[in-house]
Every structure is written in structure tokens, then in C-alpha cells.
């Protein structure tokens, strides 16, 4: 099993940047597909961005394309979510999720939370206007 720990959230103003980190322990990210989800108050959890175990494929939700970047540092067992030009509608708890790549189809990058088996505790991102 893998344990996921997120960090890097905080309170920022619109237009600012934040970098979230998701660090794995127990196993390395080379065995997993990793994604970021977020959940705002009163809303369902939604996919934000994902990256395959080797970093070859990435995917973003439309509303963050061009503003958010996802990157994998295998040596540090860490996946980063760089968030630029933040907007108040980006306010949410951000979660890191992982799925064992050996149980997933090739190039899997699911956008549903039920497709992921392991979750971090979440980190709050608040963007003020």
C-alpha cells in the first residue's frame, strides 16, 4: 500500500500562485497513476489533473488548463500541482489520489474519484477576490 500526504495549501489572493505537493510513502510513485481532485463546500469532488506513473501522459480539467501544471519527481516520490493565476472559484480542499498502475488499463488517467484507491487527507486552498 501507499500512503499519501499533501502539503502546500493556504490563503492567497486572486492571481497568486501556490504549489501543492503530494508525497508517497510505503511504495514509490513508479507503481501508481496519480491525480489531484478538489472539493468545494456543497459540491461534489472533481478531477483537477492527473499524471501517469512514468510522467508521459497528463490530463487536466478544462477550467485549469493553462493555469495549472502537474509534475512528477520520481526521486522524491512526489507529485506537484503548480497553480498559477488562481481564481476564487479554485477555492477547495485539494486531495491527492493514486491507483496501482498494474490494475489499470495502459495510459489510464481516470477522472472519477471511484477509480482511485488511495487518498491523502487533503489540503485547503482559499483564494480571496
Report on the structure:
This protein has 129 residues and is an all-beta fold. Helix content is 0%, strand content 49%. Strands 2, 4, 5, 6, 9, 10 and 11 form a 7-stranded mixed β-sheet that branches. The protein is globular and about 45 Å long.
Quick structural gist:
The chain has strands at about 5, 10-15, 20-25, 30-40, 45-50, 60, 70-75, 80-85, 90-100, 120, 125-129.
List keywords for this structure.
129 residues; mainly beta; 7-stranded mixed sheet; 4-stranded antiparallel sheet; 0% helix
H-E order: EEEEEEEEEEE
Low-confidence stretches: none
Count of DSSP E strands? 11
Range of strand content: over 45%
Structural class designation:
mainly beta
How many strands, what sense, and barrel or not for the largest sheet?
7 strands, mixed
Q: How would you state the average pLDDT, rounded?
A: 94
Morphology: globular
* Contiguous helical run count: 0
The radius of gyration is: 14 Å
Please render the helix and strand layout as text.
Blueprint: E1 3-7, E2 10-13, E3 18-25, E4 32-39, E5 46-51, E6 58-60, E7 68-73, E8 78-83, E9 92-100, E10 118-119, E11 123-128
Parallel strand pairs: 2-11
Antiparallel strand pairs: 1-3, 3-8, 4-5, 4-9, 5-6, 7-8, 9-10, 9-11
